Amino acid sequence: ADRSEDVCRTLFNEELGAVVQVAAEDRAEFADMVARHGLIDCAQRIARPTTAPAIRVLGGDQILAEWRWEELFDAWWSVTHALQRLRDNPECADEEREATRRFDAPGLRPKLTFDPSEDIAAPYMDVQVPRAQDAQERPPFINTAFNIGGARPKVAILREQGVNSQIETAVAFDRAGFDAYDVHMSDLIAGRARLQDFAGFVACGGFSYGDVLGAGRGWATSILERNDLRDAFAAFFDRDNSFALGICNGCQMLAQLKPIIPGAEHWPRFLRNRSEQYEARLGLVEVVDSPSLFLRCMAGSRIPVAVAHGEGRASFDDTGIASTLDQAAANVSLRYIDGDGRSASSYPANPNGSPGAIAGLSSDDGRVTILMPHPERTLRVANYSWAPRDWAGDSPWLRMFRNARTWLG
After folding, report:
1. How far is CA 205 from the centre of its chain?
2. Is 248 a catalytic residue?
3. Which listed residue (248, 251, 286, 311) is catalytic?
4. Of 11-15, 17-21, 131-135, 404-408, which range is least confident?
5. Which is catalytic among the residues 81, 266, 309, 374?
6. Model pTM?
7. Given CB 3.0 to 4.6 Å as the disulfide criterion, which of 88, 89, 143, 220 pairs with 256?
8. pLDDT digit string, tens, across residues 323-371
9. C-alpha distances in Å from residue 299, one per residue of 12, 290, 310
10. Choosing from 160, 279, 286, 376, which is the catalytic residue?
11. Number of C-alpha atoms within 13 angstroms, CB side, residue 188?
């Protein structure tokens, strides 16, 4: 009876404590550290990792309790699953439960086809521009309108009310060799800034218009319904030496501007997530071979990325693309994948239900790219909630901004 009482007191105590997993080769060193701090009476060896399909609670040689992992998981997840089925899309709730219940799932498995520590933009920032007597004598790589060829090209960090990723985006372009300028839509409307003065722009992500449904469409409408502004954007896209990037809300906005973006006729609209909820998580995407200037020499890489959106589900007007998912014809540049590298067809690896796991697309000539995930939020490996142990310093995503600098020359 006394022993049974001790067991219950041990198993159901609610005192402050911590569980520490220690490698076998470090056990003696850890024990010495516990002794040095006078914690011997507080420390007990309670368990060891196992690959067995069941967990046992032992009292001496007696088995006090035993469960299969699936039983424990089902009990632990049952309330979450029930609430999620009522609140969200029930199919997504079932898919997440099954994905989480797969104990042998590989998790995130990054793979790189390039060296993220290589600063490919560095040589272009050191170029010295020779003097020329007139326009006829200027070297062909010098773009006098944007001071390119040794100087730092100007990029507009375009934002609207509520956008909140402009600082990270500006840092990304600054580190890649650009001069980043904060440009609010009201600056363009009032004439305080002009798109023609910039080599490129990025439409930032965040919560434009409070992230109400259709926020990206509303942002685009503020351009399309103003003749002067529509003409300015159309002229910008028509230039062969300009580039544009749309992220999250900016992705939704640029997708709505496809009538004035050459080579973007194939782009989809972005609708409410299949889960019917705002999705914020660390996901895994694969860079697909595409014309995108931002993703050059990155194809085949599998990189974790921040996902944060409520309307990311791609919906094509062209039923041919939607049914065949001809990703080459659609210029798909990024797609969600599972830990095995397969195109993610289920939730939550595919966080929004996009057909073909589409996460980003490019215009035909690669000058305009739209992405639903947020690469600008993980510019350093330290920004990740998890990353491979051998990663350090710059994140692989910094390469896409450096690619833009090298494209300009």
Report:
1. 11
2. yes
3. 248
4. 131-135
5. 374
6. 0.85
7. 220
8. 555 555 679 999 999 999 999 999 999 999 999 999 999 999 999 999 9
9. 53, 8, 27
10. 376
11. 28
